[in-house]
């Protein structure tokens, strides 16, 4: 049953995005409990109602387990499965954050991304921007191409189960995409304007395809590929209204890691070359600039 609750939508998004970031970068790792709702409300300067809605949303997304009378437990992050020995310097289970971090430690960073929204990517790019501003890393060039579904495309997800909820859910999806892409533009252009990165190239295009998988081509030699699993779950809108919908969980998707090595006939090299060729073909023949 849906219900409306009071609360500031901007504050809801701010808190939710920050907690997702902390789980994505390992600040709150698997098996770790989140701070209490009272502590979070005080830290972010928001009401307990806002924090409660955020915690409910993170639970719906599968990040955490909400336990009666106890702090929420982190039960999922974006895990990466890799058969290659080339991984992060850490021996911990691989996640997207460290791989993106290693890519940004190179003088030239190239990223080709195919995704449903740019929400996940925005989280990780903002983390790298903080490292650049802190002087931890100093890439000389960042080139990002991103493919998103066409804005006019009728997508099968997220899809409201009740027809009367469909317009609000479409607005939510559009808002998330626009907010994330605008954030990416501001962050990357800001690095260039502040002369922290000499060369920044950012191009976002749309293709008439429904993403069934997420794809990252990193510095031309590594590919992260993950299928979207469709789930049925409640989605919490900014004002607290709940919509029952079929959706996919991008931030929680398991990614497989493939690396091009010295053998052009190896499984890793073939997969990387195949996905690069696929991406370039869609970019050249199917994509269009946003209207």
Automatic annotation (TrEMBL):
Gene3D superfamilies: Winged helix-like DNA-binding domain superfamily/Winged helix DNA-binding domain (1.10.10.10). InterPro entries: Bact_HTH_transcr_reg, Tscrpt_reg_HTH_GntR, WH-like_DNA-bd_sf, WH_DNA-bd_sf. Pfam families: GntR. Residues 9-78 form the HTH gntR-type domain. SUPFAM superfamilies: Winged helix' DNA-binding domain (SSF46785). Keywords: DNA-binding, Transcription, Transcription regulation. It comes from the Bacteria. This is Winged helix-turn-helix domain-containing protein. It comes from Streptomyces massasporeus.
């Amino acid at each position: 049953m849906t219900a409306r609750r009071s609360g500031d939508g901007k504050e809801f998004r701010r808190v939710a995005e920050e907690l997702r970031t902390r789980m994505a970068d390992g600040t709150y790792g698997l098996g770790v409990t989140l701070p209490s709702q009272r502590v979070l409300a005080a830290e972010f300067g928001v009401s307990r109602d806002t924090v409660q809605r955020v915690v409910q949303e993170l639970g719906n997304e599968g990040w955490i387990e909400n336990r009666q009378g106890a702090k929420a437990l982190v039960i999922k992050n974006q895990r990466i499965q890799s058969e290659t020995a080339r991984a992060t310097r850490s021996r911990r289970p691989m996640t997207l954050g460290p791989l993106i971090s290693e890519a940004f430690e190179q003088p030239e960073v190239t990223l080709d991304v195919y995704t449903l929204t740019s929400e996940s990517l925005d989280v990780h790019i903002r983390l790298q921007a903080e490292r650049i501003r802190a002087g931890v890393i100093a890439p000389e060039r960042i080139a990002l191409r991103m493919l998103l579904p066409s804005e006019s495309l009728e997508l099968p997800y997220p899809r409201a189960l009740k027809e009367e909820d469909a317009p609000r859910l479409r607005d939510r999806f559009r808002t998330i995409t626009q907010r994330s892409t605008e954030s990416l533009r501001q962050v990357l252009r800001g690095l260039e304007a502040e002369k922290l990165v000499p060369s920044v190239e950012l191009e976002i295009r749309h293709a008439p395809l429904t993403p069934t998988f997420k794809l990252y081509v990193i510095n031309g030699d590594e590919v992260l590929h993950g299928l979207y699993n469709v789930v049925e779950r409640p989605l919490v809108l900014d004002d607290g209204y709940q919509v029952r919908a079929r959706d996919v969980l991008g931030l929680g998707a398991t990614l497989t890691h493939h690396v091009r090595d010295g053998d052009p006939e190896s499984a890793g090299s073939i997969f990387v070359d195949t996905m690069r060729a696929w991406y370039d073909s869609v970019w050249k023949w199917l994509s269009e600039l946003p209207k």
